[in-house]
Amino acid sequence: MEKIIKLNQKNLAEIAKRISCPTYNRSNIKTGIVHVGIGGFHRAHEAFYTDALLHDDSIKDWGICGVALLEFDTKIYNTLKEQNGLYTLIIKELDGTLTKRVIGSIVECLYAPENPTTVIEKMASPEVKIITLTITEGGYNYNEATRGFDFENPQIHYDLEHPESPKTIFGYLTQALKLRKERGLLGVTIQSCDNIQGNGHMAKKMLLSYVQKAEPELVAWIETNVSFPNSMVDRITPATAALDIEKLKETSGVDDAWPVVCEPFKQWVIEDDFSTDRPAWETVGAQFVEDVVPYEKMKLSLLNAGHTVLGIIGALMGYDTIDESVHNPHINAFLKKYMDIEVTPTLGQLEGVDLESYKQSLLQRFGNINIKDQIDRICSESSAKFPIFVLPTVTTNLKEKGSIDFASLVIAAWAIYSLGKDENGKVLIIKDAMKATLNEKSIAASKYNPEAFLEIETIFGKLKDAPTFVSTYTTAYKNILKNGIEKCVIDLNNK
Ligand code: CS2
């Protein structure tokens, strides 16, 4: 057994004898990108693409400064700091082999809760050209009921009162942009990498709503100097398990406190709308296009919604991972039908995309038995996911008089899931910013009033006023309680 080596810059040359490591000189790389949200997805995606780019020796200006915005991110920040920004990406290939690679593109790390000024200064520094975000779907502070910025959020109140030591992304960006304006610097690009339809538009709309209140005279400057490209991001990145860490030690002798695991597939489609320079990510596989909207729509309503379907139904049936759920033949057929009958007609013409093979490839990706993507991860923050992944399909189908049976069953299953137990009585761990409301409304729904769940307007908007939807959902709800979810899935498949 080889000696176990701790992953850090000092040991990199030694580790390079065992697994693939950056061959560029990291100390020569300057920060050109500030990234907020250094969770697994960013490290499997943008940081991976950027690392590949930095292997071109002529490129030295596109290092990433990773920012941990929340106290929740303390552990990952401490780990990355200890490892000088280095971590191992473990790609779980379809045949079960592991491709391991140390990623070096995160050349600096900052912890916002303890050091807000440093983060603001970094975002405002002249060499920074792009601020990228993975702050999750819920992080945009969008309220479905008002279709606008949620000024009721106590953290937003806090930021308005303490502009120099903010807590939210909106407070940080506002201060940084204000400094850029005062110092006569160029604008920046703010690039969302979250799973939201029109994620750039959303970032812009939410930021401008906040700025309008906090620093109204900054609005015009932002409109002229800051661009917000939309993008579609894709790579399934489950939470790292203790076993992954152990296996890396065992098979390569590398002690990495927090490697990232992901699938082999990756995709990044970006609208080519950058305020100043941008990295040539297209040389390492990203696509730059004029209009990213159709790609986003396809991905969100097929892949992400597909995950939600497998997650919620699978959770009720007692499965732990997505591959278990998709390998149940009834759920598999249900998902196929949902994609074909309910989603596909809402997508319109997608030029240059072979939808049939895209859907096939999704089933294969979901079924990768090596990934073991946790159903807990997929069902977490469902209150932010349903309105983006599933409900737009329902709304369009209601308008077009298309089928809503499959989606309604999943929504009804979610109402029952929110009671906190699967069909065998096992406790479900619900991680959701709206957990208390979901629980309260799901209990009300279980008392012979399924519609109560739809009263959560911040999630469902006005859907509770659509009689066709309400009756389809209510029937589905009652059927699940009476016959169990699997029987309902089978019945719909045979309908
Ligand atoms: C998942 C996504 O969180 C979710 O519900 O659907 O994290 C998904 O794995 C990624 O978007 C894949 O690109």
UniProtKB/TrEMBL annotation:
It comes from the Bacteria. Residues 291-480 form the Mannitol dehydrogenase C-terminal domain. One of its GO terms (molecular function) is oxidoreductase activity, acting on the CH-OH group of donors, NAD or NADP as acceptor. InterPro entries: 6-PGluconate_DH-like_C_sf, 6PGD_dom2, Mannitol_DH, Mannitol_DH/Oxidoreductase, Mannitol_DH_C, Mannitol_DH_CS, Mannitol_DH_N, NAD(P)-bd_dom_sf. One of its GO terms (biological process) is mannitol metabolic process. Gene3D superfamilies: N-(1-d-carboxylethyl)-l-norvaline Dehydrogenase, domain 2, NAD(P)-binding Rossmann-like Domain. PROSITE patterns: MANNITOL_DHGENASE (PS00974). Residues 32-282 form the Mannitol dehydrogenase N-terminal domain. Keywords: NAD, Oxidoreductase. Belongs to the mannitol dehydrogenase family. UxuB subfamily. This is Mannitol dehydrogenase family protein. It comes from Aureibaculum algae.
